[in-house]
Amino acid sequence: MADKKQQTRQSIGRPRSEAAKTAIINATIDLLNEYEYATLSIEAIAAHAGVGKATIYRWWGNKALLILDAFLISTKEQIELLEKENIYESFRQQLQNLAAVFNTPIGRTVTAIIAESGADSELAKTFHESYLYPRREEAKKVLKHGISVGELSPSIDLDVALDLLYGPIYLRVLIFKTELDEVFINDLVDHVMKGIRTV
């Protein structure tokens, strides 16, 4: 009997926890459209989400980690690399979506706090493990597919090709702090593809 009661409590509590997490993530995104990172407080996020501060700290150790999680959750589908009819279109579409994400308030905030935190910080490591590494592995699979079907040269260095595609994006966002536009993305993909295509 006690086991059944415990299962009931867990089944009730779990949806509430997920609802609270969703409310916190949405509140974070909403408030970043109104406030700068420096002036946005955990108290404001908690109030907007309708939860207590303790609820937020139960899942996120600090504001930066919360914002990073909000970024990863809210942009996952937008930045996935989907196979299109050809390699060029796959990367062009994904980089256009990536540019759009980095042009948003939460995108600009995440890149800024990553740059300021340092390469050895917990935040930078989480960003690498949860975002950069998985995206890079997906992109490598697309390049390997391009090689297997004869669209890309088999002699290309996969890591160099990816650095050529993504490096300018992060350089402009992190160093130059400029917005990315469609013309730049199209020119970038055109130039890189000319060097790695078989024709």
Protein architecture, described:
The chain is elongated. The protein has nine helices and no strands. The protein has 199 residues and is mainly alpha-helical. Helix 5 packs parallel to helix 8. Helix content is 75%, strand content 0%. The protein folds into two domains: 2-59, Orthogonal Bundle (Arc Repressor Mutant, subunit A), CATH 1.10.10.60; 75-196, Tetracycline Repressor, domain 2. The termini are far apart.
Tally of domains: 2
Q: What is the architecture of the largest domain at the second tier of CATH?
A: Orthogonal Bundle
The largest β sheet comes out as:
none
> What's the CATH superfamily of the largest domain, by name?
Tetracycline Repressor, domain 2
Helical stretch count?
Answer: 9
Low-pLDDT stretches: 1-13
Apparent shape:
elongated
Task: Describe the structure in brief.
This protein has 199 residues and is mainly α. The protein is 75% helix and 0% strand.
Keywords:
199 residues; mainly alpha; Arc Repressor Mutant, subunit A; Tetracycline Repressor, domain 2; 9 helices; 75% helix; 0% strand; elongated; disordered N terminus; transcription
Helix-strand blueprint:
Layout: H1 2-32, H2 42-49, H3 53-59, H4 63-75, H5 87-102, H6 105-117, H7 122-148, H8 158-176, H9 182-196
Helix pairs in contact: 1-2, 1-4, 4-6, 4-7, 5-8, 5-9, 6-7, 8-9
